[in-house]
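Contributing new records

If you add data, match the layout below exactly. Sequence lines come first and carry their own label; structure lines follow with theirs. Keep one chain per record. Anything else will be rejected by the validation script.
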Amino acid sequence: MELNVKLGKDSGMPLKDGSRYRSLVGSLIYLTHTRPDISYAVHIISQFMFAPTDVHLHAAHRILRYLQGTCTIGLYFPSTGTFDLAAYSDSNYAGCINTRRSTTSWGVRMAGYFVSCRCKKQDKVSKSSMEAEYRAMSDVSSELIWLRHLLADLDVHC
């Protein structure tokens, strides 16, 4: 995404046929499973599937150009390593210009590699940046607890 650009539902001219945009965004959503570095940008452009504009299409093409330049980057999962869990979270306060809701993103690493990550708009409007950050920490904490129970069921202790 370009720095300091806020995409809104009314930015730009509406596309005559939005089916190509929807197909492109759907493909990018699928690609975020192996390329978590584009998840925030794809999250933003996927909000405009119902009425895409030329500005939204330009942002999607920018993601494609980024992918073309970084085609050798991906996730790598080695077979050795310790099973230490580490979690990271962040949020932007009132990042959506239409709803003023914050966006939460977090990732969980196991053995030094990301095994779970998410980027989504928060359910409620936060009253401060501190509240938005607490919501992000709460989400990633819930994921950590779930992962620890799953790993314990698989007899993997970390």
